[in-house]
Structure to design on (422 residues):
């Protein structure tokens, strides 16, 4: 699965990276973010784009979001 | 759905409180205005000497402390910085120039519309044009680069400075300046203004309310979350103004506004463009500053210094209209902002 590291980027950049990556690999991807706002925004975008999202908490306030098969 | 209810309640309360702050004594259509209030604080500290716009606005202090406390409580206080700080300072400065040529930040633009000031429609058109231009660069890989973790103390300093401002306001030492006439002399009682700020700061932190984000996310991602907040502010502020008798529809004789359409448009184009590059409107920058985002602190300081320059160099508009110097400053600011946008286009290197 395609992986994106969006840690340290401020909104809307993580969402833009997600959007671009989905255009290349619509089968799904994993995105790494390091703040609550990016987590919520990326998750909301993935839902709008028609994906189900799995969110995992990681150490240091990071989150990994991945798309899952419906 | 729960999320959407939250932003409607937050936007609605911001609108109602803004209307009430005017009712309790704030200048007309200025329940909240981040640009105007930072400009007033710059004046009170003597960074500029325009004697009608000098006051330490408790709303700003409240916004910062409200967002700070709730971010701490919700464990979202996270100290970071290092994402092109000086470019952000310059962009903050530029956004302030644009806002003071239009006479209001994006939040006040919405509040002016809600007070019936149709000049703000040209501001809104310009703001939207600026957002479109900013999105062009975002889509081409514009980025002010990553932030890095910083020590906790760094994040506590900005809220501490705001407590210092509050102490100034309570003790009014002789070296501060307080307007005795003009908009700076008009203000709601301290306790009301501070409480309104605290509440809005907390709500804005929880919901990420952002005036530039609303239009941006709608265009970029067809995401209507933030624009819902934008609309809620407008609707509830308009209703409160109607109820309090502060609604006055038209272009002429609008309070703390001018009707030079071109410069209302261009001023807000600059604000929209600069805010997109910064990742959020002046209100959002203030809230992020309180959450430990040092880049946003630098942006706010850029706005404060920009406000001081705007008055010292005669760049700020008044009810009489924009100044020659102000027009030149807006044009130079466009060139600088464009350079910052072009020079920060990064090719993707995102695969982990």
């Amino acid at each position: 699965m395609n992986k994106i590291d969006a840690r340290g980027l401020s909104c809307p950049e993580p969402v833009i990276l997600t959007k671009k990556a989905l255009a290349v690999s619509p089968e799904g991807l994993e995105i790494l973010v390091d703040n609550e706002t990016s987590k919520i925004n990326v998750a909301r975008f993935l839902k709008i784009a028609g994906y189900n999202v799995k969110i995992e908490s990681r150490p240091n306030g990071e989150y990994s979001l991945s798309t899952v098969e419906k | 759905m729960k999320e959407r209810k939250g932003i409607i309640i937050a936007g609605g309360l911001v609108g109602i409180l803004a209307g009430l702050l005017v009712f309790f004594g704030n200048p007309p259509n200025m329940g909240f205005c981040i640009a105007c209030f930072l400009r007033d604080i710059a004046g009170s500290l003597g960074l500029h000497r325009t004697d009608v716009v000098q006051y330490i606005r408790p709303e700003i202090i409240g916004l910062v402390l409200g967002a700070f406390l709730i971010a701490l409580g919700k464990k979202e206080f996270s100290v970071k910085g290092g994402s092109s700080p000086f470019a952000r300072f310059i962009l903050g400065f530029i956004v302030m120039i644009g806002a003071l040529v239009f006479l209001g930040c994006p939040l006040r633009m919405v509040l002016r519309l809600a007070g019936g000031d149709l000049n703000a429609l040209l501001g809104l058109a310009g703001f939207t044009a600026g957002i479109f231009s900013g999105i062009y660069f975002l889509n081409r890989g514009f980025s002010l680069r990553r932030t890095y973790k910083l020590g906790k103390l760094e994040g506590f300093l900005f809220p501490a400075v705001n407590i210092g401002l509050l102490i100034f306001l309570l003790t009014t030492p002789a070296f501060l300046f307080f307007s005795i006439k003009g908009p700076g002399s008009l203000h709601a009682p301290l306790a009301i203004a501070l409480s309104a700020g605290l509440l809005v700061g907390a709500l804005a932190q929880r919901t990420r309310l952002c005036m530039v984000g609303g239009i941006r996310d709608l265009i970029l991602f067809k995401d209507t979350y933030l624009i819902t907040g934008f609309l809620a502010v407008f609707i509830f502020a308009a209703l409160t103004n109607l109820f309090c008798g502060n609604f006055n529809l038209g272009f002429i004789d609008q309070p703390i506004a001018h009707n030079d359409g071109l410069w209302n448009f261009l001023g807000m184009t600059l604000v929209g463009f600069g805010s997109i590059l910064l990742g959020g409107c002046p209100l959002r920058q203030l809230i992020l500053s309180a959450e430990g985002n040092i880049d946003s602190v630098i942006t706010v300081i850029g706005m404060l210094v920009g406000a001081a320059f705007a008055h010292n160099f005669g760049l700020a508009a008044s009810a009489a209209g924009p100044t020659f110097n102000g027009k030149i400053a807006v044009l130079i600011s466009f060139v600088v902002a464009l350079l910052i946008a072009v020079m920060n286009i990064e090719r993707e290197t995102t695969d982990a």
About this structure: Chain A touches chain B through 28 residues (CB under 8 Å). The domain at 2-68 of chain A is CATH 3.30.110.40 (Translation Initiation Factor IF3). The longest strand of chain A covers residues 52-58.
